[in-house]
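Aim 2 progress update. The chain analyzed this quarter is reproduced below.
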Amino acid sequence: MNINYIQIKKILIGLLFLVTGYVTFLLIASFISKPDELKLDFAPIQASANLSNNIEVNQISSNTPSTFDYKVIGYRAGPSRASIIVEKNNQSFVVQQGELLENRYKLISVDNEYAIFEYNGKSLQLSTNLKLEK
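Predicted structure tokens:
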């Protein structure tokens, strides 16, 4: 049995040229073709003015429920992520922005003045002022 290596080599090189030619054709076709021009006509939005008047803004409740008696131990406030450490009944909790405190109160935001939680559609706030209280 005599294997003709030169013939096999020519067949493989031919297949390689066919694949290379096909890929080159696709590349050239992608350069030649261009997307259709879209004409965007933005009409004035009238409904947004009426919608903004109907939105109710929840007021931040300064009267926190008696069960929401947490003390702020520390916090980290940043533009994108924030967290707070609170204490209740000698038990500490670390809550990150967007997470729940004791599966009830969702931490909405933290800044250098207040930490705002949400519970049943009502906003609750804790002072993040860490000055020594006497």
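The beta strands are 60-61, 71-76, 83-88, 91-96, 100-101, 105-110, 114-119, 122-127. Helices lie at 5-32, 47-54. These observations will guide the mutagenesis experiments scheduled for the next reporting period.
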